[in-house]
Amino acid sequence: MEQLNLVFAALADPTRRDLVARLACADATVGELAEPYDMSLQAVSKHLKVLEDAGLVTRGKDAQRRPVHLEAEVFDLMTKWIERYRQRAEERYQRLDAVLDELTNEQNQQRTDRKDAS
Amino acid sequence: MEQLNLVFAALADPTRRDLVARLACADATVGELAEPYDMSLQAVSKHLKVLEDAGLVTRGKDAQRRPVHLEAEVFDLMTKWIERYRQRAEERYQRLDAVLDELTNEQNQQRTDRKDAS
Question: pTM (2 decimals)?
Fold first, then answer.
């Protein structure tokens, strides 16, 4: 899915993950977001554009401030994808465990049978 | 965190997400993995290398087959990161909702007071 490409790519950068982390606490302007970084406003704007293209943030309509807002529901896209395959992998390990348990039980049974026969 | 960069970047590609999805069901060799794609073995190996560098897959030691194995625990890195900020954003919305509720209650109270006074 197209958006999933953009969301994963957007979060592959530590500065963009930091921006998301800060926006989870409060909306902020580009100026406010740029403050702690040793980075130009343009560089921060570029990172925000990547987050915006992925749907992770939106910009407010207040022409002066245009505060940046986190769209946290987009996280669901990722967690749904991750959870589906994590679950599938877990089910597979559980099936493997069950098979191993059965093998161990059979071996124990054979040992007991042999002991009984001797 | 360095690995988080690699994991997010690895999953930003639809072919690599498809490889992960298939490896969640069963280990497979590069040849088996390449089969459904219109892609060279080299191209698939390149994608697998990206997943391997991110720690998402490992290669078996069987020299002939070297089956590819999904390391599903690496998903936890991502879900932990995502969940922390999703939760933070949700708490914030809940606080906003509480403030809005309070404002609405106050307004209703003022209306009632005015009606009582008139």
Answer: 0.82
